[in-house]
């Protein structure tokens, strides 16, 4: 989708392969009213079994319901949580877990946004896509470190080359 004369329209052309999207450059919106909930810099991962994205922080347009819920079965068995609602349209957008067994300890106090309730605006392509079409799984830290190491090595080579150029120019003058 994209803005065209102040309305949202479905894009005809394909955005780039959704697995290759840089998740840092996106914002999350309510699927019903397009209210902004957060950005890709807050993403901590995905809980596929619950269909949720884990975020560290969200905007004030997400309201935490006062009522505490518990479940005896399913993914949230033995958990105490509250529903997250859109401030504008009051629709369900996720949960926040207050207490849980150790298997969900890493999700406590994080915002679990329900992917089917979200759309993502991709800043690089000015496109709106459904959150369910994007994977938010994080790379293993080893992979990320190797990638960063390659980038640093490339930058180091550029710096050495620039230093050599500067030295060559200073000996000529």
TrEMBL record:
Domain Mis18: from-to ranges: 25-123
GO terms for biological process, alphabetical: cell division; CENP-A containing chromatin assembly; chromosome segregation
Entries under Pfam families matching the protein: Yippee-Mis18 (PF03226)
Gene Ontology annotations for the cellular component aspect, listed alphabetically: chromatin; chromosome, centromeric region; nucleus
Keywords for the protein's UniProt record, in alphabetical order: Cell cycle, Cell division, Centromere, Chromosome, Metal-binding, Mitosis, Nucleus, Zinc
Signal sequence residues: none
Keyword DNA repair found: no
Family annotation (PROSITE patterns): MIS18
GO molecular function (one): metal ion binding
InterPro entries associated with the record: Mis18, Yippee/Mis18/Cereblon
Superkingdom field: Eukaryota
Protein name: Mis18 domain-containing protein
Organism: Neogobius melanostomus
Lineage, top ranks: Eukaryota, Metazoa, Chordata, Craniata, Vertebrata
């Amino acid at each position: 989708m994209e803005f065209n004369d102040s309305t949202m329209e479905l894009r005809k052309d394909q955005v780039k392969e959704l697995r290759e999207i840089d998740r840092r450059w996106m914002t999350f919106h309510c699927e019903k009213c397009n209210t902004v909930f957060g950005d890709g810099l807050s993403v901590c991962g995905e809980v596929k079994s619950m269909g949720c994205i884990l975020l560290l922080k969200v905007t004030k347009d997400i309201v935490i319901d006062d009522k505490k819920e518990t479940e005896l079965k399913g993914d949230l068995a033995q958990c105490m949580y509250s529903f997250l609602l859109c401030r504008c349209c009051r629709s369900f957008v996720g949960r926040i877990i207050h207490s849980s067994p150790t298997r969900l300890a890493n999700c406590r106090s994080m915002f679990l946004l329900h992917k089917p309730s979200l759309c993502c605006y991709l800043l690089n392509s000015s496109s709106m896509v459904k959150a369910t079409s994007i994977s938010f799984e994080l790379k293993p830290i080893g992979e990320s470190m190797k990638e960063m190491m390659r980038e640093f090595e490339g930058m180091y080579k550029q710096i050495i080359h620039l230093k050599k150029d500067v030295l060559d120019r200073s000996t000529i003058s």
